[in-house]
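Friendly challenge for the regulars: who can give me the structure tokens for this chain first? No prize, just bragging rights.
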Amino acid sequence: MQIIGMSLLSLLVRQRAVAAFSSSPKFGVKAATARLMSSGPMPYDDEKMPFYALGTNLATQVGGQGNLKTLLEDDEMDIVLEAFTDTMRGTCTADTREVLMQYGQSLNKILQERTANIVERVKKDGEEFITNFLDCNEEATKTDSGLVYYPMVEGEGEQPTASDTVEVHYHGTLTDGTVFDSSVDRGETIKFPLNGVIKGWQEGLAMMKEGGKATLVIASDLAYGDQGSGEVIPPGATLKFEVELFKVVK
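First reply, four minutes later:
Bragging rights claimed.
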């Protein structure tokens, strides 16, 4: 019983386990998530909004803005919401334990199969994007690891190593142009230890010098892999960054 519940929960929320640019929450996700939030009016007054916030939190925890809605058809989502409401109100006609015992494994299988299909499609799109980027940019090179490096401005200062801290500006997009995080948009540079970020950044920044600017196209195995990151970077996603290196701190 508990095994089924934990399996379902871990599958639905796995995208939330990784923060942007690192395996631990350091920077990026908060700003990116904020940009995706609606700027429209609140649906209730201040007295009722805390309860709306509770519902928002519960939905977010199980992928309401992330993976779950991409895995279910509209009618399937309606059934999920019906079951949630019935269970919360205590009006469910079936025994909840029996429902989970009888159908939990089937749900696991459905979600796993659909997730795998989505990841493979996203990876294929990334491969096509990389091929097209290389064809359109003669100065772009692909390293042995698969990183695509395109120099935009050659720097003349220090060149960082993995043990250094760097100060940069960056603008990160998905292959469809969606901006998921950008220090440029926030109007402030950011400093971080180079050995604390994704592999594509470690390799790409090590190819730059202070004062330089480059585009990095990073396949998923050098970024966030099949897990993705939070609600903004899908599993298997290829990422494109424009990075400007301001300073290397030895």
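The chain is about 45% helix and 15% strand. The beta strands are 141-142, 148-153, 165-174, 179-182, 190-193, 213-218, 239-249. Your move, everyone else.
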